[in-house]
Write a structure and sequence with these properties.
Blueprint: H1 21-28, H2 33-60, H3 64-68, H4 70-75, H5 83-111, H6 121-145, H7 150-171, H8 177-196, H9 206-232, H10 237-252, H11 255-264, H12 278-304, H13 308-315, H14 320-335, H15 337-350, H16 353-358, H17 363-370, H18 382-411
Helix pairs in contact: 5-7, 5-8, 6-18, 8-9, 9-10, 9-12, 9-15, 9-17, 10-12, 11-12, 12-14, 12-15, 13-14, 15-18, 17-18
């Protein structure tokens, strides 16, 4: 006689009970009387504030001051005859960004870490919209306020250039990837020279000036901050003393004071006729100030690594320089991505101080000036102008934050 038994059912843990919306509300918002009262009060306040915001944006807000002065807000007093240079620069920048994205995706495909390999075209477009919806929202808002076809053509050209660059970058052989990296690093400076050839940096203004100062300062401050962090951990006393002095000096001084000194006092220490332009002074201050904070962030990442990493490199016969730049530093930078991006976001927002301290015609300085125009003076339009400027800065900051989270997820930051 043969006994038959029922097949064993694999256990995967306790069954997960499906929760209805009512159950979720009771558990999370109305668990007790105090929770219920808090939910009702905060919910009513949120609905009221949302209503007032929507009413202000679509009903009571007077946006003519933005529509009339949109060019000033975007590019300042940049001459109309040279605006095609701005459009060309944006298209070239988009092409280079697309090229870099294509190269990065191809390397991820080679390593088997790309998530786009099995995605359809529709899924990829959906992913791009989810990632960059704030930028698309801002672009749509600005284009909706324009009365000429130039900005729309520029945006269309930038999108097309980025798409073509993405395809070309994905098709380039591995040997050409270093060339793309060099081109990406050199392009901002070439475009800066191209625009400055039309009008000096001190003639720039609006959001373009804020972005320019932030991008150039970011490119310069990162390697300087990394070197300062390595110098502070150096075994050479003179290198360690210089690095420590640099970091503590610029971390201890307020940024606004440094900008004032660069604008007012720098001329007393330089020969007549050799003083750099105001924008250059601002970039130097932003670079040195942010580099000091980047140095401490990187130093924290270096200290978080176990000593076994260095010992393993020595066991392999690697030199101290190769151990630092091939083993230690990449892991340290990976661990401090959130703090680094937070510092870069602060740098982007701090560029507004250049208007108050140095008189540069950056975005927030423009928002103050346009409310004093004859057609808008005394009408209380500060809320409209500052809300528009704040939205532009939020779009840039939020996009950087979201991309930082995406990079952290890909690199497994915070996981072992």
């Amino acid at each position: 006689m043969t006994l038959t038994t029922a097949p064993e059912t694999p256990t995967t843990g306790a069954p997960r009970l499906a929760r209805s919306p009512g159950t979720w509300l009771r558990r999370n918002l109305f668990r007790s009387r105090a929770d219920s009262a808090t939910t009702v009060v905060v919910g009513a306040l949120a609905v009221y504030l949302l209503f007032r915001l929507v009413q202000f944006v679509f009903v009571t807000g007077r946006w003519d001051v933005i529509r009339v002065n949109l060019k000033l807000l975007m590019v300042g007093r940049f001459p109309d005859v040279h605006l095609p240079r701005v459009a060309i620069s944006l298209v070239i920048a988009a092409a280079v960004i697309g090229l870099v994205a294509g190269v990065v995706n191809r390397r991820q495909l080679a390593a088997g870490t790309s998530t786009h390999a099995t995605m359809s075209v529709v899924a990829r477009l959906t992913d791009l919209v989810e990632r960059f919806w704030p930028v698309l929202l801002g672009a749509g808002l600005v284009l909706g306020l324009t009365s000429t076809p130039g900005p729309s053509l520029t945006v269309a050209g930038a999108i097309a250039a980025g798409f073509v660059g993405r395809i070309v970058g994905g098709a380039l052989p591995k040997q050409a990837h270093p060339v793309v990296v060099v081109a990406a690093l050199v392009t901002p400076f070439l475009l800066t020279w191209y625009l400055a050839d039309a009008i000096g940096w001190d003639g720039w203004g609006g959001l373009m000036l804020n972005v320019f100062m932030a991008v150039v300062s970011l490119i310069l401050c990162f390697p300087l901050g990394v070197l300062a962090a390595l110098g502070r951990r150096s075994n050479l006393p003179i290198v360690r003393a210089i690095s420590t002095g640099f970091i503590e000096l610029f971390r201890g001084a307020p940024l606004f004071v440094l900008l004032l000194m660069a604008n007012v006092a720098l001329g007393f220490f330089l020969p007549e006729g050799t003083s750099p332009s105001t924008v250059v002074r601002a970039i130097v201050v932003f670079t040195l100030f942010t580099a000091a904070y980047v140095a401490e962030v990187v130093r924290g990442g270096l200290q978080s690594l176990p000593s076994g990493q260095t010992e393993a490199g020595r066991a392999l016969g690697l030199s101290p320089v190769r151990i630092t730049f091939l083993i230690v530093l990449p892991q340290a930078l990976r661990n401090v991505i959130p703090a680094l991006v937070g510092q870069f976001i602060s740098l982007f927002k701090d560029t507004t101080l250049a208007g108050a301290a140095m008189g540069l015609f950056e975005l927030f300085r423009v928002t103050e000036a346009i409310t004093q125009q004859g057609a808008f003076a005394g009408q209380g339009l500060v809320a409209e102008t500052f809300m528009f400027a704040g939205l532009l800065f939020w779009i840039g900051s939020y996009t950087m934050s979201r991309e930082s989270q995406r990079i952290e997820s890909k690199l497994g930051v915070g996981t072992r």
